[in-house]
Sequence to fold (97 residues):
Amino acid sequence: MLRFWMAILTVFSTKRQIEIQNGVFGVNDLKRINSSFLTYFELLASKRQDSQGNHGNWLSALKHLKKFSKATVKFSDIDKQPSFVCFYFIHLTNSDK
Fold:
């Protein structure tokens, strides 16, 4: 089962890299690609305070991201191979709930 999800995540990661290279998400300039992903994620989480359940999910995801990654994780780190997303998935499936 893990092999199946790793294949899915590899396809997702490859597709995302192509989209970034083509400028689909507008993060192809060096200033944005070298920005802190965690700071950006914290900003998004803070905007979800109107919905307690949704905000709680964002805070939980942020807690796991901080536990998994270094404090200086950048957008560019997320798209490196081996995939940040794949290792994060493995972390989530193996971590204590």
User: Anything to note?
Assistant: The chain has a mean pLDDT of 76. DSSP finds six helices and no strands in the chain.
